[in-house]
Amino acid sequence: MLAWIAVIAPHGWSAVGVAESLFSGMGSRLLWVIVAAFLAGALNAVAGGGSFLSFPALLGVGLGPIQANATNTVALWPGQLTSIAGYWVEVKKHPKLAIKMGIAGLLGGSLGAVVLLNTPAKTFMFLVPWLLLFAALIFALSGPVMKRLQRRKGLPAVDPRRERARQSGQLILVLATIVICFYIGYFGAGAGFLIISLLSVFGFEDLNEMNAMKVVSTTMANGIACILFAVSGKVEWRFCLAAMVTCAIGGYSSARIAQRANPRVLRAMVVVIGLGMAAYFFWRNHS
User: Fold this and answer.
1) What is the CA radius of gyration of the chain?
2) What is the rounded distance in angstroms from the CA atom of residue 156 to the CA atom of residue 164?
3) What's the total number of domains in the chain?
C-alpha cells in the first residue's frame, strides 16, 4: 500500500493522476490483462471456456506458466462461488451428496494444486498445449451430451431401480470426482462438463441437480487451490485483482447476450478458440 501511495502521490489524488500512475507503473501489460479478463468473463457467461483467453493473456504479459495458472484460478473463482447461491434449491435436495461432493472437491483440488506447485515450470509449459487441447475436445463433446441431457427434462420419474443403483454407487462417484477435481486443481479448463457427464453415468437425470453438484465440487476444488496458490506466493495480485473485477463486469454485461445467442454457435466458437490456443502453444514450444 505504501508503494502505491508513493507512486500516486506525486501526481496528486485526482482521477487523472491515479490513472497516470497506474499505467506508468504497469504499462500496457495491465491493459492487456483487463481486456482479456473482460472477454473471458463474457465468454464464461455465454458459453464457458473463459480460461482459453485469460490464461494465455497472463502468460503473454510475462508471468511464468505456473504463476499465470495460479493467478487465473484465483481471478475466476469469485464468479464460481456466487453460482452456489443460484443452485441452492437443488443443492438442498441432496444435502448428503453435496457434502460428499464438496469434500471430494477439497481433496482433489488440494492434491492437484500441490502437484502443480511442485511441477517444474518447463514441464508445465510443455503440458500447456496438451491441457488446452484436452479442454477444447471436452467442450466439443459437451454439446451433444448436454443436448441429450436437456431432452430428459419433463420425462417420467426416475426408475426406482436406477435410483437404488445411484445410491449404491455414490462411493465410486465420489472417488471419480476426486480424480476430476485433481485436474481442476492442476489446470481445470472444461472440468465442469466432466463432472456432469460423470453424474449422468451414475444415474442423475435432472440437469439442474447435476449442475448443482458440479458447482459444489468445482467451487470447493478451486477454492482450496486458490488458498494454496495464495499462500505459496504464486499469485500476481496486481494482475489478479484487475482480472477479477473486469471478468465479473464482462460476465454481468454479457448475461443478456447469453440468453439470446445461439448456444451451438457459441460452443463452436469456444472450441475454435481453444484449438487455436493449443496450436499456438504447440508452435511456441517447438519454435
Assistant:
1) 20
2) 17
3) 1
Cβ atoms of residues 213 and 181 within 8 Å: no
Task: Write out pLDDT tens, residues 159-171.
Answer: 555 555 555 578 8
Q: What is the pTM of this model?
A: 0.77
In a domain, 22, yes or no: no
Please say whether the beta carbons of 19 and 31 come within 8 A: no
Q: Residue 34 sits in which domain range? A: 28-286
Tell the residue number behind the cell numbers 478458440, with chain if given.
273
Measured distance CA(271)–CA(142) in Å, rounded: 10
CA 111 – CA 108 distance, rounded (Å): 5
The C-alpha angle 70, 76, 78, rounded to 5 degrees, equals 115
| Cα-based torsion angle of the residue sequence 259, 261, 264, 268 in order, rounded to the nearest 10 degrees | -120
Residues 186 and 51: beta-carbon distance below 8 Å: no
Residue 16 belongs to a domain: no
Q: Answer whether residue 14 is part of any domain.
A: no
Cell of 61: 504479459
- The Cα 10–Cα 21 span in angstroms is 9
First to last CA, the chain: 41
**What b/e string do you get for 115-148 counting C-beta neighbours within 10 Å, with b at 16 or more?**
ebbebeeeebbebbbebbbbbbebbbebbeebee
Whether 15 has a pLDDT exceeding 80, the answer reads no
- What is the reported pLDDT for 11? 41
Q: What is the pLDDT of residues 130-184, one digit of tens each?
A: 999 998 888 787 766 666 666 655 544 455 555 555 555 788 899 999 999 999 9
Q: Pick the closest to residue 79 from 44, 35, 106 (CA basis).
A: 44
Q: What pLDDT sits at residue 249?
A: 85
Q: Is the residue at 104 inside a domain?
A: yes
